[in-house]
Write a structure and sequence with these properties.
Elements: H1 3-21, H2 39-51, H3 55-84, H4 93-129
Amino acid sequence: MNVSEIVILLLIYSGLLIFLLSPYREIEQIKESNDQVFFRSVFKNNLVNIVFQKKALFALMLLGIALISIQLLFDSAEWHYNAHSGYPPISKKLPAFFVVGSVVIYTIILLLSLAYMRTIKNMKGAKELE
C-alpha cells in the first residue's frame, strides 16, 4: 500500500468514527456545587456520554470490521507468499500485530481527543453563561 492510500483510509476511518461518536443532542452544561466547573468531572461525563450512546455500537462494529479485515489481509498475503514463492515459509504475525495495535491506539487517541474537544467547548459555554 502506498502512503497516499493509507492516508485516505485513515481520513475515511477518522471521519466515520467522529460521526459515529458525536452525540446527536448537545450535552447540557455540567456545573458542580458553588458554580464551579471542574475539568476532570466534565471530561469524565463527556467521555461516558460519548461511549454509552446508541451510535457508539456502530463505531465498535467499525473497529471490529477494520481489525478483522487487517488480520485477513495479512493472513492471505502470508498464505499467497508461502504457497507460490518456493522460498522457505514466512510469518507475518508480528507486522499484523503492530498494525492492529496501531489502529487500536489511533482509535483510543481519537476518542480521547473528541472528548477533550467537547469538554473544552462545554467549559467555554459554562464560562459564557456566568
